[in-house]
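Interim report, section 4.2 (structural modelling).
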Amino acid sequence: MTSPEEFLSYCKEWEAKIGAFIELKDDAVIAAELKQADTGALRRLPFAVKDNIAVKDLVLSCGSKLLAAFRSPYTATAVRKLEDQGAWIIGKTNLDEFGMGSSTDNSAIQRTNNPWDQSRVSGGSSGGSAAAVAAGLVPFALGSDTGGSIRQPAAFCGIVGLKPTYGAVSRFGLVAYASSLEGIGVLADTTERCRQVFNTIRGKDPMDETSLAAPPAAPPLYGKADPAVIGVLSAESIAKAIAAAAHDEGDANLEVAAQAALLEDEVRCGFETAKKNLAALGYTLVDVEIPSLKYGVPAYYTIATAEASANLARFDSIRYGKRPDWAENPDDLIDKARSDGLGDEVKLRILLGTFVLRAGFQDRYYLRAQRIRAGIRRNFEALLGDADYNNTAPQCDAILLPVFPTRAFDRGPSALSPFAQKAADLYTCCANLAGLPALAFPVSVEGGLPVGMQVLGRAFAEGTLFNIVNAYEKAHPFPHPSGYRSFWPA
Ligand code: GLN
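Predicted structure of the assembly:
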């Protein structure tokens, strides 16, 4: 390690340009940590934590004005496990308010810029964590992924991002957005670092009844890299299916959605490069289709907003959140606190969630979305095998698909509209609906910006995904933005 002063000035210079951190520890604390002797498996490594994950005494704003001054009374299990291994927290990172968004521009606190091009977004909602890793300020960071919030910013910033199997990592200490879809995961500079961090934070936790250990029949996390069959999802077929539905139903919104699902040229180019490179590494590629995927986004937003409307009820300024100076009565108090404290995107989703859960309408929206969700899971299980490891002859070991139809977008007139951003969640939200692990990784740089793809696997088959991506990284080392320096031993 170079001198703490050298790192601190590097860190300051980058942070002034990208704004990844909502709270960064003091220079003196960072310098002291950097000088500490080696202990534990994650010796001396600093890490960043998305600001919707609890760390005792640090801010827990969730990117919201309502919680900007809130400090957590306890620490999330995933964070504690890392600290137990000798890693230390350097700060809390920016995010879209409560994890709702794809750019981090929905943060009420600040903007985060992409280290590759500061006029562009870092992606979201874990944009601060992704930017901090991509700029070399930390070797890894924790994020949360409800519908793509780790993988999409990882792809935008050119790093690795793991959304683990649902339940593989404890959610204790993660501020809930959509509990049945989300989990804590890892953003890292290298595949092997990502694997090591995941290995540290996974496992059953008595504080989270939905957490569980990998079944004995699942492939080991550190297993031999066997030859694998990779299913390749045809992105075009999905965009076509949505366009056909738009035509049949004469729905203009569906037409916009079909347009948004189309890959931009550079991403299509990256997809082709990834296929070519994986084939050259000896993987067998087969074409696969997931017919139900065309309904993925509507199902995701129905379920996510329904759960969000219930989860966010606690932010009423009585239990949590900034309390208004004056109110007529308790209802008025809650009204004032939420009107003033929550951003437009959050309000939109709470309204949508209460709409789909209205008495008498649940059949039409919520239950229908749950049926689509079951269909998507069955489609994936038919290809990859089931979560209980009863089906022993799956057709493929992993599925390769894009992360997002575009590279990091800018904020100018060509920026993606909020509706198009949601429609573009198609490729990420299916892993959350099915509860499956997915690992995003940079496959190439096109026009000066990184392009990411993801491999999606059977429940608890993270080891298989890491093996594939590690082989890719060895043959095609991951790129870095200009001005990047690596301070962290592998
Ligand atoms: N873009 C998705 C959304 O806005 C994903 C968010 C997430 O994974 N937290 O809901």
